[in-house]
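Table 4 source record.
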Amino acid sequence: MSQIIKISQKRNTVISISKAIAIILMVIGHAEAPDVLHRFLYEFHMPLFFAASGYFFSVKYTDDEMTFIKKRFKGLYLPFVKWSVIFLLLHNFMFDIGILNEVYGNEQGGVTHPYTWHQIQQNFWNIIFTMGGYDQFLNGAFWFFRALLVASIVFLFSYKAFDYLLSKEKSPLHSMSNTRTLYVPICVCVFILLICAWKTYADLKIVNIVQGGYRDLMGVFFFSCGFIFRQIEHKYRVTWWNTLLFAIIVLWFSQNLWANMNWRSTFEQFLSLPLPAICGCLMVYNVSTWIDKHDGKIKQFLVYCGNNTLPVFVFHIISFKIVSLIKIWYYGLDPRQIGCHMVIHDHAKEDWFWVLYTIAGVAVPIFWTWCYQQLKTKWSQASASSRDK
């Protein structure tokens, strides 16, 4: 029993490191890194989050759907609503203090504006009922909460549906539990890929899901891949040569058939995404396994970061503003450029400020999370001590 617990802890540590690498890559992508790096990491860093979530899915929830749905709502919907509403209430205040303005915005020249009372109410409704309406300039990564919530629930019921259909066929494989947990999610993968092919080829949209549902459906696919990998992990071997091969595949696709989880993806981009995304996920898993074998500060930080990705998701864009102030001073730019989304675009492709943006985007949320947890622990200990007296 103790050996099983150790194996479980080891797996959790490797996946935590993988999630940390994914969140750091997300911040690098948002920091307007050099094009080669930007295109490379966008092939797989978001699919990795879905795969990591699917890795921990338990088939026990196929007989206890409400428990799984409640956990998903508690872990995804409630934090989304909480922070979306907070930033909604702060939106106009950000204009008052100069963090946002109507002059500087995204790379395409789009800007944001103060909300009217009606817009505040409408955005609040969108947040509650569609998991939309979040502040795009301050919460640009919040689509992930909705996509993962939808993907995990769709996977649950898709798994149940295929498990039921295949059991009616009385396949000899269905009675073998170790095989059943492998071929059922494979059926889900194939089915979802066919749906996504239809959707992108015909340019269809799921009108009651914000942004049309492409990210959510592809999220089901990668969620399934994570679950499948868990079933075959004991047979998988981490080697330097397959790590290098995965990196080469991702690099080739990033330069020749670039695709990512863009909600406006075309049919060609859809076809180009699964292979490099899966290779990228395996590449990160291999690197994480290597890091996990070497105890030290780097491993400790990555494990902690991987277990606390939520603060980075929520606060990395606002943390960028610290570096934007430095960049404004360094280049003598218009102070209103602090309102650029996500970072200041001037000189972005020729300087190294993306490194500072990355450090701030990760370190600031993680530092404040650590401080909060330390204070919370001390308060709890003090309260327990006072009760003992």
